[in-house]
Amino acid sequence: MADTKSQGLVFPPANSKKRAEHDDMDNNDYVAAKKSMLLSSAAAAAWEDPAAALASARHEFGEHGGVNMSIEASATFTVMEPETLRKMFSGELGADRDFFIYSRHFNPTVLNLSRQMAALEGTEAAYCTSSGMSAISSVLLQLVSSGEHIVAARTVYGGTHALMSHFFPRACNITTTFVDISDLDMVRNAIEVGKTKVLYFEGMSNPTLTVANIPELSRIGHEKGVTVVVDNTFSPMVLSPVKLGADVVVHSISKFISGGADIIAGVVCGPASLVNSMMDLHQGSLMILGPTMNPKVAFELAERIPHLGLRMKEHCHRAMVYARRMKKMGLKVIYPGLDDHPQHELLKSMGNKDYGYGGLLCLDMGTEERANRLMNLLQNCTQFGFMAVSLGYYETLMSCSGSSTSSEMNDEEKALAGISPGLVRMSIGYIGTLEQRWSQFEKAISRMQDSGLLNNE
């Protein structure tokens, strides 16, 4: 890992001791009280449930005693004595001691959100970024160098697939072997000891909802000496990859965690050593590339995370009910909560209790024509949901994955990934009553049947 001295340790080792006072200001009880609320290593070790972990994390109060934190909108920060600047740039003083230089490096509001995300995923540290893709690209560029190799799942978000299959080979001399993540022997055989540096997959794949065997994949990765990185965007609260053996978790916070379809953001959650190395002044991917999160965005997100668990439970509950009813109608539905899903028992064994099986389901309509006809009826005739990419919104969002979010893949790649031309991905919302929305779905299916376009084969 790269040296972190130049920027100070934002997430100090568990056995380190912070000095009680600042170098350039008098200590006071308020500062001490704030610092005592840092998530301790003991609290992290006692992690059992994501909601409990979030409730145990540090709560940042406002500048004037507000129950909500203040927004630190400054791009740069002042000090009381000139000597303090030298100490900050030499690494003697850092954000872990509430010393800040410039908001591209660290910002107090963003750092608070990062602490919440670390608590959510049960990791030592986290760093929030301007988008999910910036989180993914930054962590991979930190872990993998020119001439080295990644093993990745065939079924990943289209942007991630394009990054690995096109951008990395051209710009970075980094190659990727795509594998069936359910075939553990294929995964094992694809890893080249000494050359492969990362095993990358999604906890619940986009869009096919294949569930990864995180414990076994992590064991294989560690036996081969590689870092296991899991994209948990589809399953926050449902899965906790690090607790199942993974090393690093990334999210597109834009999705379920935000919940409002109004913010673009990402996060890297993992060991403190990794996060600190990514902020190294000379070699850190986050520091050098600068995918900075706006503190105003961080504030908004921090206010939404406390009710993420409630939202996820309702997303998952409705997806389960709809999936069962769709199956009874004779539709080809893919949902990990159904008994006939290939990884149903696996997800049941790995998932956090009471959070369900995810808020997404897929309907395979066979052809793109039927998929488009169904979505048109659901949006424009019965108002069941919206034709839009992304997920985690309070309204149901639906898209034909092969011609939208996975369009970066060619036909052969989509076939290998199990993405059929008529695969409709639905992110199930929770607005309105469950029965109201189901009635709207039934009306659209009835229209499909009346027009003779519904093919249940």
UniProtKB/TrEMBL annotation:
Entries under SUPFAM superfamilies matching the protein: PLP-dependent transferases
Signal peptide: none
Pfam families (UniProt xref): Cys_Met_Meta_PP (PF01053)
Disordered: annotated segments: 1-24
Lineage, uppermost ranks: Eukaryota, Viridiplantae, Streptophyta, Embryophyta, Tracheophyta
Classification via Gene3D superfamilies: Aspartate Aminotransferase, domain 1 (3.90.1150.10), Type I PLP-dependent aspartate aminotransferase-like (Major domain) (3.40.640.10)
Name of the protein this chain belongs to: Methionine gamma-lyase
Cofactor entry: pyridoxal 5'-phosphate
Keyword annotations from UniProtKB, A to Z: Pyridoxal phosphate
Protein biosynthesis found in the keyword field: no
Gene Ontology MF annotations: carbon-sulfur lyase activity; pyridoxal phosphate binding
A single cellular component GO annotation: cytoplasm
Coiled-coil zones: none
Highest taxon of source: Eukaryota
